[in-house]
Amino acid sequence: MPKLHVKKGDLVQVIAGKDKGAKGRVIAAYPREDRVVVEGVNMIKKHSKETHQGPRGAKTGGVQTMEAPIHVSNVKKLKDDEKPAEKKADKKADAKTGEDN
């Protein structure tokens, strides 16, 4: 099975295609097809028929907007900004005040 350079939950940017420049999180990865689903990218409209075979007897029909998979070569992994940056700021603040003296 091939290995992808991104995984579910990674922050990526689209570098090719109609949504070039868009950023989003990876919702799902399909390594066998070399494709990933990115949040808010490659939106398609899917038409579903109203059926009565779902739970409790009914499923609503209509047009649903959803993300379609894109090729993994069209996305670039970005660095996450969720890492805590307060530690560096606290050290600098202590140095400026000179509380150790």
Q: How would you explain this protein's 3D organization?
A:
- By secondary structure, the protein is mainly β.
- It is 12% helix and 33% strand.
- The protein has one helix and seven strands.
- The strands form two sheets. Strands 6-3-2-1-7 form a five-stranded antiparallel sheet, with no helix packed on it.
- A hairpin with a 4-residue loop joins strand 2 and strand 3.
- The chain is elongated.
- The N and C termini lie far apart (60 Å).
- Residues 5-32 form the KOW domain.
Low-confidence stretches: none
The rounded distance between the terminal residues' Cα atoms is 60 Å
Strand content: 25-35%
Mean model confidence by pLDDT: 84
Find the count of extended strands (DSSP E, 2+ residues).
7
Count of runs of 4 or more consecutive helical residues = 1
Helix content: 10-25%
How would you sum up the major sheet? Answer: 5 strands, antiparallel
Spell out the helices and strands N to C.
Answer: EEEEEEEH
Rounded to an integer in angstroms, the radius of gyration calculated over CA atoms is 22 Å
Enumerate the strands of the largest sheet in spatial order, edge to edge or round the barrel. 6-3-2-1-7
Biased composition (Basic and acidic residues): 77-101
Region (Disordered): 46-101
Keywords: Ribonucleoprotein, Ribosomal protein, RNA-binding, rRNA-binding
Function: One of the proteins that surrounds the polypeptide exit tunnel on the outside of the subunit.
Summarize the structure.
The chain is mainly β and 101 residues long. The protein contains one helix and seven strands, in the order E-E-E-E-E-E-E-H. It has one helix at 86-97, and strands at residues 11-14, 23-30, 35-38, 43-48, 62-67, 70-71, 75-77.
